[in-house]
Design goal:
homodimer; alpha/beta; Isopropylmalate Dehydrogenase; 2 domains; 10-stranded mixed beta sheet; two-stranded antiparallel sheet; globular; binds 3-isopropylmalic acid; IsoPropMal-DH-like_dom (chains A, B)
Chain lengths: ~350, ~350
């Protein structure tokens, strides 16, 4: 068995409720496969601001750096959303840890479990067989460019900026992944308007030459946002920048039936960082109804990508599949048109997956 | 009857094929209602670059300024998309005319014709009753901020920038429209990350106070891209910036069954500018299969908004409805699952609408 240190950061909102289940699944895998996983806990986001005034306390960052992988929940709170003038904000914690750990590649696999074919607002015949792997650049773009607010507060700006090396390194990762899949890569930008996108397109065209076996397509973001719904099956690997990736992957959650099903892996120079893409969802936080499957599937990604434990990772995915096949559903993935589902809360659902793991 | 000067700019790709039908519809309305519409033609985009080296020749701009309204087709060409290093680009013509004419508000109504309920990739029960009016800011944002490419060509940037007055004026227009509709306004931004979005949100919160009868909601762009597909009926008026509006309205075309159905109006200080949102679509250009309905519906918007001719505008919309009810379809809106549609090309479809106008 392997020995690994895992940092768990539940964060804000439903992150507090679902991340426990990601951790329990990791504990169960460790027990079954004779691995030794040691867990530490860290704070980040609104809870960290409340406790220390800092959305990413140094202590959390230190723990992160000495861990082998990080399981994260979510970040954000209505208080800051309602008051755009607040200076210290939960999201700064998330952006800072992405930057400090060099997590430049955010992988978001979008795949529909057969059992959820009816849960989406999109027609089943459009969805069946869709299987997309997003590579979202995560430490550049307008997220990290200089922000300016004039003294009179009447003008505000953010710099959308990309450097060649930033595009190159994530493009290579995306092409490598495409090679192990259906060998199609779609790069999304807005090169007809933006200079940063024209650089993006030039660099991807250059990297593409190293991968002649992969078919490359370039698409404008507006068209991509449309095609994703019109014909999701046309996509295999999608490569895009930080902002466009943020938008497209949330939209793509409808392909997987619900945001509550989607896991992501952020990787780069060292420690990997695993999180659901759903966010803190303050409207349902504290009610015990959030879907724990995205956190559990994030744990599966962690086992696979950071620890190379493919059998263990597959075991988790199979347990999720089995749970869905048995008809268990959280609210977000329940099918309003059939009476065959057993609708349950976060903990009951998490417990069913644990049962199916053994 | 009224006397009006209309500038027609077919532009590139399928713009050349569909815009003729928007014009024919306007001619027919003029004849039936005893108005005098005088038409001029102008060039813009790739065709203008080929003819003059300039994507927006001064002559076209002059004609635009002395017209009462402009009917535009589309812009863009594969040549520029494949070579991001080209300096002179068709889109510059479109961006320049928007700026020069002060067309800061782009209205994009998204409404599904009952007859097309089955044409979309989204389930009919999700779509039925959806009716959204987008207000996309059109002369600011990262589209018009400073663009920089370093001398070594390895770094590129665009400035995402908003001024208070830019947000204020379009917010007021959107709130006024919301008052005549279901009195709900959703403002979309990324205020948890972007300073320009925080200004946007502050200003919308201020303007909202002048419209206490309208219910205001603020939503992050990633969430909005998801909600639009999950539950389009929750939206009434959507107010957003230039880049986010570009993305969301293309995505929203799936609510209307096809991009080929969507018209838009760009208004501001003076002359209104009317165009389909579909773009030049070079993959199908020259084949005679493009859907002319978006251009025809753009003509309907022109009659309503620029000329105040509501009866005439409604007459056009009714003719489109009648044509769809008779089962006539272009390829993009044909329903693959029924055999009741008569599939036809651009000209046959346009001719059917003309018949129904009389
Ligand atoms: C919370 C927010 C800063 C974050 C982002 O925009 O990156 C989130 O939406 C995500 O996608 O991880
Ligand atoms: C052609 C392009 C510059 C344009 C835009 O991005 O504004 C188009 O996509 C649109 O939406 O009108």
């Amino acid at each position: 068995g392997v020995e690994k240190k895992i940092l768990v950061i539940p964060g804000d909102g439903i992150g507090q409720e679902v991340t426990a289940w990601g951790q329990k699944v990791l504990e169960s895998i460790a027990a079954n496969f004779h691995h030794t996983f040691t867990f530490e806990e860290g704070i980040m986001g609104h809870v960290a601001i409340e406790a220390t005034g800092n959305p990413l306390p140094d202590e959390t960052l230190e723990k992160a750096k000495r861990s082998d992988a990080i399981l994260f929940g979510a970040i954000g709170h209505a208080k800051y959303d309602n008051d755009p003038t607040l200076k210290v904000r939960p999201e700064q914690g998330l952006l800072k840890i992405r930057k400090e750990l060099g997590l430049y590649a955010n992988l978001r696999p979008i795949k529909l479990f057969d059992e959820l074919l009816e849960a989406s607002s999109i027609k089943p015949e459009i969805l069946r067989g869709a299987d997309i792997l997003f590579f979202r650049e995560l430490t550049g773009d307008v997220y990290f460019g200089e922000k300016v607010r004039t003294a009179d507060r009447n003008t505000a700006s953010d710099l959308m900026i990309y450097h060649r090396y930033e595009v190159e390194r994530i493009a290579r990762k995306a092409y490598e992944a495409a090679r192990t899949r259906r060998k199609k890569l779609c790069s999304v930008d807005k090169a007809n308007v933006l200079e940063a996108s024209r650089l993006w397109r030039e660099v991807v065209q250059d990297v593409a030459k190293e991968y002649p076996d992969v078919e490359t397509e370039h698409m404008f973001i507006d068209n991509a946002a449309m095609q994703l719904i019109k014909d999701p099956k046309r996509f295999d690997v999608v490569l895009t920048g930080n902002l466009f990736g943020d938008i497209l992957t949330d939209e793509a959650s409808q392909i997987a039936g619900s945001m509550g099903m989607l896991a992501s892996a952020s990787v780069g120079d060292s420690t990997g960082f695993y999180e659901p893409i759903h966010g803190s969802a303050h409207d349902i936080a504290g009610k015990g109804i959030a879907n724990p499957l995205a956190s559990i599937l994030s744990a599966a990604l962690l086992l696979d990508i950071s620890f190379g434990l493919k059998t263990e990772s597959q075991r988790v995915i199979k347990a999720v599949e089995a749970t869905l096949r048995q008809g268990y559903r959280t609210m977000d993935i329940a099918n309003k048109h059939t009476v065959n589902d057993f609708i349950m809360g976060t903990d009951a659902m998490g417990a069913k997956v644990l049962e199916n793991l053994n």
